[in-house]
Amino acid sequence: MKKADVNQEQESYREGLWLVGPNQARKSTKLHSILFTSLLVLFLFLTRDTWLVGPSRRPDEEQHPPCHNHDSPATSWADIVPSEKLSWSPCFPAFGQDFYCARLTLPMDYHRPLNASPSHPKVHIAMVLLPGVNHSVDTGLVSESPLLINPGGPGGVGTLDVLVTGYGMREIVGNHHDLIGFDPRGIGATWPQADCFDAAELNSSPDEVEKQEAWLHRATWQVEGQAIGLPNSTERALADIVRRQEAVNKMCGIKDDKDSIFRYAGTPHVAQDMMSIVNAWDGWLEELRDAKGPGHIEQPISAVATYSPPDTKGKLVYWGFSYGTMLGATFAAMFPQSVGRLILDGVVETPRVAANMLVDSLRDTDAVLSDFFYYCHKSGPKCRLYREGDEARDIRERFEGVMASLEDDPLTVIPAHARIPVIIDASAIKRLLFVIMYIPTAGFPVLALAIDTIYRGVDLGPLVVAPDLAPLCHRKLDILAYPEDSSRVIRCSDTTYQGPSGGLEDFQRTFERLANVSYFADVWTDIVVTTCSGWDITPTTPPALDWERFPWGDNPPINTSFPIMFVSNTHDPVTPLRQGLVQAGKFVGAGLVEQLSDGHCSIAATSLCTVAKMRAYLDDGIVPDVPEWDKEASEDGPMVGKWEKCPANEEPFGVFEPVVQGFSGDGLWAQGEATRISVAVHSVRDAMRSQTVRTFMPPQLRLLSELAVG
Q: Where does the Peptidase S33 tripeptidyl aminopeptidase-like C-terminal domain lie (predicted)?
């Protein structure tokens, strides 16, 4: 490949063109050559870009015209002054000219309210607002109830999510919606961070040097652990993984104190914060009315002339993904009369016994892998692992042969661009495969190319980039939000996420239970099940939490002020359809939509039907039907019952199809709108996958700093 072609391919990669989109199915095979490099480096590269300040575009790639005059917009969270009342400031113009930021000061401990207790530690919740089309803080034209977004995790950075994906998400739900992304306590730009690696004093802000040192310490620790492999890779692997988790948790415990964020970061506290955000928005609207007079709140606009705002004043309007569904369900349990609209997408169950949920999460994981072989066979030559005359089982055998060879004889690769040897073993590829299953429409072609390349014995030296920590030593990195330990802190604060507590033997038993359910038991044990080993920080609960009302066990269904909308995919690798059905039964009148696709959350594939039902729910209050589920008949097989289902308009190795044969609902879209929605879904999926990678990718595939192609 010529150097000019390499540079062009790198630019295409950086723009996210590796995703399968409406205009991407016929890309040249040159793009495929870059895809294998993507396999080994794309996830950290994207994660790194997520942490760095960078430009953003609308899904249609047109520059969004400013709807107001920005005077010196903030370019750092340090420029945003915390306030006990909402105060919006223009911010981060590199992402677009329409964003506003705020830092809302709230009690760290709601038992010690601000200004009503002699000791009241605080949190400053970072928030980003993207107003709807023709809406603006400057003019005072805004919604009665904005749409709060949580990207999942736990640990997802909501401010970055809206900065990077806001235009796409607004296209999906309707451009008249105002969107707010917020960083839950302990996360991202919210202060204080739940960071076990920094050396700052309790509830004090580390300086930039201390932050970068903490980042380097964390990265070094991760690299040290990469040689262990997965829990079943050696006789000592599980014990070593547990011991390393205990070491980090011990370090967190040393930083704990009665006023430390570690005790106050659990999901119920964040749910109470969301209620505070709703109240703060209402208070801010009152001030707007006083300052600007009547007539400025949610008027009909040309973009949606027939739109009539729902009666959601003083209530939460929310779209939560994955862990965000648990956060939404917790809010509904704590504040049932404050539910305006809740879309819970990629549903996590809230069980009383955590170990049962951890095992049940992998119920459909292997089905996603099986569908890879199905779609590869169905697509024929479009799938690089396919050979003429193959059946699906032949493709599976080819895949299994490659994995077995990596198990017995890992590849030693000398990268062409760094003098650091790289070992590619079965554990690394298996973890990568686990992440790919979150987004099969985009990831399956990459998987096919990677396995085929290894199968054919191609020298990987020109394609592999070695782990390199040198960039973390640079003192001039423009970091929007540093990594922290919020995912660990939240998981271990929530009893739902706490895994086995009986020592190594207990972890071994849980692993064996998982192994009877899924091929990916070792990955799940490594990244989730063992996380809280040795965690001894006792979490607190806010005053609004009543465990007798919590949606678990035999507690009666919760009657919310408006029914909840649940969305689950047919085969989701970590939040199976069954969990969506279980959760829907815990709330009176809740409806469920099954999206007929693989992957995690509805954005794993474009479904115009799902988008239409979301819009109808948000704008018109049309709730999907309450599912009728035969639990006993569904115990050991596919889910049996009756509920609403939506086809996807794309599948792996295919192209976007505006109309699904045999489904009449797709014809309702205006010309061009279907394609715009598909592009929007892809843009959201492209950015949100980095949240997944931050949690799940192995260090040798994450700690990469540059994209290099031979």
A: 519-625
